[in-house]
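Please, structure for the following, as tokens.
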Amino acid sequence: MTRAAVVGCGDVSVVHLQALAKLDGAELAGVCDTDPDRAVEAAERYGVPAFADHRELLRAVRPDVVHVCTPHDRHTPVAIDCLQAGAAVLVEKPVAHTVDEADRLIAAARRHPGVKVGICLQNRYNATCRAVRELLGSGELGAVRGGSATVLWHRDPAYYRSRPWRGTRARSGGGVLINQAIHTLDLMQWLLGDVVRVRGHAGRYAHDDIDVEDTASVILDHAGGVRSVVLATVANAADSPVTIEIVTDRAVLLIRGDLTVQHADGRVERVAEPAAGPGGRGYWGASHELLIDDFYRALPGPEPFWISPHEGARSLRLVQQVYDLAEGR
């Protein structure tokens, strides 16, 4: 039985805890949060001990795997402590709140090659995204002309007041790009290829009481000459479905919940995306469970998990380039 622990008992921990409860061969052994009320609530729900310090949890519980669901600025310090204790680590996105911290985790992972490290970019497991990647890779749709994506979500002042770190650059690393749109940036690079040039702007237009951006526009030039455009905001009236549109010589592929493939000859194909289960937010999707299951299946093998810190940092580097441009660097 693989012993697991969760560090950070905020919103996203819910999907990790629920996935662990369903996972054959794994058992939750402890939870940790610096907020004692959150830690105790999760501990009582799952019948495990609660801790206020992750180092104490590591000593007392000796978990085989730790899920890091903390605020962004604690991802790297907690993950490195886990690696040094010999525990595999599954880190929520982003890999870290800065590129420097991501590089520190990458270096630590290299020093512990026998310990698995994964990053939760779970939308790569979406049925729709995997179908798009397979279609584009097959060549049957012809050359890719370009793509676009939108992340139009809603965050009110209460969202930032409830977790003040979210609106603080020093702790979160940024706003809508790093916290909401990073999954979509990751998908554009994963689907359309390496990004060789980034242009964009990020600003605060809807929220006066935070020091991170709430709206951003990004142009990505991919290797081979393909261009994509990403628009993201948390100033929308609702949490609309993320959209990804990719135009090829022979079809237009549109993800908006499900995938629709409109062929040039008039044929239409559709791929359904499974609905999210209870506990999380519907617009997060349903693929956390798939990624977590895959990570645990990969534990006995010698190879690094395929979404490693190095892989997870690719989208963070895109975000950092936009921030640098916005700040004139």
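The radius of gyration is 20 Å. Residues 309-326 form the longest helix (18 residues).
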